[in-house]
Fold each of these.
Amino acid sequence: MTSRADLPNPGTVRHPRAGCQVVADDSSALVRLAGTVEPADVDRVRDALLTRLVDRPGPIVVDLAGLRAGGATAGQLLAGVRLAVRDWPAADLLVVDPTGTVADGDATGLAVYPSEAEATAALARTPMAAVLTEELTPTVGAARWARELVTDGCARWGVPELAEPACIAVTELVNNVVAHVSTPMTLRLAAQGDTVHLAVRDRSRRQPRYVGLAPLTSAGGRGLLLIDTVARRWGSTLLPDGKVIWCVLHTEDESHWHHD
């Protein structure tokens, strides 16, 4: 995937600036933070990490060994990023913190390791999520192709009961892009146990508006209501050049619906 950042070396992504630098190698899951994390750096570093996570499926390892100061601020920043992506398809982060300035566990929700080797080993022990990704154009047929991908994924992952609600959700997510922002989009879905996680990334920072039940006379406005009905959780995360709208579906919810 081509990076939209300064590329001093092939495959290396840098976000340089006084304060904190974010350096990532496209060939691995490793991202290094170097320098000093000041409050003024937080939004820029957060955006760089979110972009990395949305462009590349799978967890990342964030190495803080190069930080000279600002470890506590970095810990709060990373906890916020992990919270933002915890329901995205196949997204997570692990932290390398040799100095021990970042709290882990219940305080931040972060998995923190004292060395890169230990974090990499933990990542290798994590089962790889089953992931499907597709680039879609904002055309009338985009939703149909998205439904086919979702149906195939649910069957392949042994959760066929989620195919129908997932198709409802993905239709609304894709059609929202086609109707309102008309930009290229990336569809990603992943299975995690008895759940399916869906996300559509587009190139507009225009946020969706959920206003609850729409009047019966309304010609639209029911898309997010449908997603809210079939999904356990859903939300939207802003990116520097767009947003991700995601949702999570549980087999338990679907079984309960049919049982009732």
Note: Residues 1-10, 213-221 have pLDDT under 50 and may be disordered.
Amino acid sequence: MTAIKKTAGIPLLLGALALPMSLSAQEVEATDSNIDVYGSALTEGPEVEGIITSRSGDKIRVTLENGTTTDIIIDEGTEIRATGGFLGMSSKKLTSRQLLNGLPVEVDTLQFDGGLVASRVKLKASDLETAAMIRGATAQQFAEQREDIDANTAAAEALRGRMANIDQYNVRGVTNVYFDSGKWNISSEGEREICEIASQAEAMDNALLLVVGYTDSDGDEDYNQVLSERRAGRVTNYLQQKCGWKPWRMLTPTGMSESDPAADNSTPEGKAQNRRVSVNILVSKATEEG
């Protein structure tokens, strides 16, 4: 927690803010004494919408669309929820440990003399899956590819030295490659698009590629997991063998089966959009700022 003394929690404060406006002066004075949180009374703060770009102790830093940043305290009373499912109507309560770098969030805040405290953090379950996948894939990739990295000492050391916070990425380009039902062979159009995004990434300093495979909702779930992995693996092989992309500049390919559909699976057109492999260009925020 911060060094500022805390004498009450957010739930107490939220209740106090909801008290009727008809309170007497004596009642208001008594209420004020109960909402002395973080050393000063809290008032309603702004809603902050952006991407988590760093964590430090009990604080998160959220970068807004215009590039400005806002530091927000995550309190033990902060409500953190992920929405997903049909029309986003389901909701799952999360812990502060699941607020990962790279995660888009909407934060309702309370304001005090020392800054902002989060009363509620809202995010999408699909975004949380992607952020967790990138974080895990990054760690796994650097472990599995250590020998390849050492074989490319000069380039690898320059890359690793500038990526102290490698899980903090900017997405600089995305290409979706589409597949026929039950297939994982790449069309001629898909081959062209794969090499095109590799060329785009090659022009960016220290860019990495993340390849993620998906399926539509047809078929057995276990088979779809295998199918999504085969599609991701086929695209990865093509990137390396035909487009000249170096293995040590690629995160571990991942199959996500039917999750995170891009379109409605109840129509043939929607299913066609969901049978895809997403090739993402990632550039470390530390690299770009350094």
Note: The mean pLDDT is 77.
Amino acid sequence: MIKKGVIVAVFFSLFMALAGCGKSAEPTSSAGDAKKKVIVGTDASFAPFEYMDKGKIVGFDVDLLDAVMKEAGLDYDLKNIGWDPLFAAVQQGKEVNLAISGITINDDRKQTYDFSVPYFESTHMILVKEDSPIKNALDLKGKVVGVQNGTTGQAAVEKLLGKENKNIKKFENTVVAIMDLLNGGVEAVVTDNAVANEYVKNNPDKKLKTIEDPTNFESEFYGLMFPKGSELKPKIDEAIKKVIDSSKYAEIYKKWFGHEPNIDNLTKQQ
């Protein structure tokens, strides 16, 4: 007769073995291991970088991400979770493993997150109605200006007008800010140059124009954002560099912006 203690020991051993199989770790693509999908978060309201088209997330960031993840040998899913929730989700590192959403790399964010090497150079641009008297960033003083909350566009306007200035209106996303501009709620919107140019190009009937001001708006660089200490960063950094150095980056860039990229400043940042 098999003793009860032996049966208990056997079941305990099986339980511990199964429990060990159920443990999760950093996503891996090592030979012999089951691949775990990398979950990438975004805010799909930032055309042409990421936006919804017929129920699907599309855009420059989306195509670039696909090329980078293929180069890195990583399976992934892209989730649209919104701008403010995106930062909390990355910091916690549970819902998503990283984020891509036209996120500017800056010293303040580096205190909380890790960033990839830069993959895009951008600057801020002013969006106004065609008959607006605004000619440059300094003309925004005394005007009601719309920005997306929590962005470097907001920070740039606050630097010009003052952090507590009541004329700065903060919106959930840039699309809503532009709608308020069209409705007369704000006199200008400050956002990334590619976003402003894309809106004007696709909506000629709205009679809006863009204003550049490189004197008051410095260049910025976008990067993929990770939780602090992410093991994914080195692999993705290497993949980004390879995609930028190949013809694939120029192909994606030209598809979305209509001209060849100038990658000199990107490579200098690496």
Note: The chain is about 40% helix and 20% strand.
